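User: I'm putting together notes for a lab meeting next week and I want to include a structural view of one of the chains we've been expressing. I don't have a solved structure, so I'd like a prediction I can at least talk through. The sequence is below, exactly as it appears in our construct file.
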Amino acid sequence: MGTKHNSPGNKARSPVSIFVVLGLCCFFYLLGAWQKGGFGKGSSIDVEIPKQTDCTVMSTLNFEPQHNYVPEIDSSEPKAKVFKPCDAQYTDYTPCQEQDRAMTFPRENMNYRERHCPPEEEKLRCLIPAPRGYLTPFSWPKSRDYVYYANVPHKSLTVEKAVQNWVQFQGNVFKFPGGGTMFPQGADAYIDELASVIPIADGSVRTALDTGCGVASWGAYLLKRNVLAMSFAPKDNHEAQVQFALERGVPAIIGVLGTISLPYPSSAFDMAQCSRCLIPWTSNDGMYLMEVDRVLRPGGYWILSGPPINWKTYYQTWKRSKEDLKAEQRKIEELAELLCWEKKYEKGDIAIWRKKVNAKSCQRKSAKFCKSDDADNVWYKKMEACITPLPDAMNEIAGGELKKFPARLFAVPPRIAKGSVSGVTTESYHEDNKQWKKHVNVYKRINRLIGTTRYRNIMDMNAGLGGFAAALESPKSWVMNVVPTIAENTLGAIYERGLIGIYHDWCEGFSTYPRTYDLIHANGLFSLYQNRCEFVDILLEMDRILRPEGTVIFRDEVDVLNKVAKVVGGMRWDAKMMDHDDGPLVPEKILVAIKQYWVGGGNEGNNTSYDE
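Assistant: Thanks for the context. Below is the predicted structure for the 612-residue chain, given as structure tokens.
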């Protein structure tokens, strides 16, 4: 498909595995050479690097004095534990969504498809292997349309969804034509129809939510219109749908509307859709639609395509009676009215509602409002059939008016302007942005691949105000901004900047498949989690979700990073610690690590061999 790669049988070394051979004295020289030569296993640089082993060329990199390497502190403590590879059966291991554990929970309201994490004694403390033959994913935008079969070796969707144009198998790749169940002719045409009603083109709509996303083609095609969609779907019989989405370079998580609240703040999304997602919107007194209302911004849009819309045409195809479908649509209309959503469009397979912008424009007959005074406190909170009150209006818009994107990226978020984020003022917000622009420039000098398509899927594990993601903002990449549940709740302000993210507790596994992120940033994360859970468990989870030859940047206090570096020493990562941007006297340091390329091998069960 254009880019040539070595076959799994060809043992040409990848650039990062060569780091091990030459030693870390060449770490950044080789990284620079890799940037010039190509990306990943099988690139032309594989041949060139072994010819260049003279580490005196390090001086040509011209690192500034304040980026001196920090030597390891001698210690009488035992050396780092070496972590062994997990058995090859765990290649696609997702700790909190494993099928065997899921099946022990009730099926009612999709409880069994929600997060169910293993107890301490059942945690895997080994390295998740990549599948044999794993290849560096295609660069964006080619990755939107092509995925290597070796990376996600699951063909069931090519058969099950063949007529719906989800995915096709061609040679050694999957091709994604951009179709979906309700847009078999392609996502572009579908989005064009939405854009005739919703102001997608002018930056008014920036963040979107796709509930039951399939392979996330809606989100994939929104990206070229500068709309960032958070897509989710359960880990179910639609094998690897979220894994495909992330392999394509599209934001997605494993998730479901079930019994607990979605891990997003209130008033987060400018637009949300259900494209034949088959979520029972009218059940449980409309609880699921009320949850969408909670996360939808005042003035935001909700799109429903699929049952029961256009039931007169499809009732036989759906094998449901006219009366049943008519009653379902009537109930959805009633719920929408209760939520103060105004219907803006219904034609063919698509219906669109818009949420009212403030409480004054909403005349409800009667409604049950949620009693909680914090609509953003949602981690493992039981979902309720109640309506989240609209926030106080600022300039006639509940919660405050947002600028159009990209202006909103650095504008002061309304939550900060009205003092809702503890300890953050307008002045400190601007200072935070200034600092992160400086930090990211330093990162780019350390690793010139940052800011290129080599790092498409990026995660910030402790996102703060989203300054790291804002400084990186580019069509070449996207950032999953994670706000730890034990940190100050800043996720609402992050969404108001036109960025996306999620709440998470790093003492547990993240809701994603292995090998889904190219670059992970951890600022102050390990200081935050000291005495809360084991560093080992967090680092092994980072290894699980990091792609082979992916990069991690840690920024933390030196004593904390020394503990991290010791664990990393046994994880098949190559790491180097450097001084802070402002010099060696600052106790905060930077640790940069790159995961080596290695894969699981053979079919020998517990006697599995592993290749580097």
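A couple of points you could mention at the meeting. Residues 1-25, 32-40, 42-66, 602-610 have pLDDT under 50 and may be disordered. The longest strand covers residues 546-557.

User: Perfect, that's what I needed.
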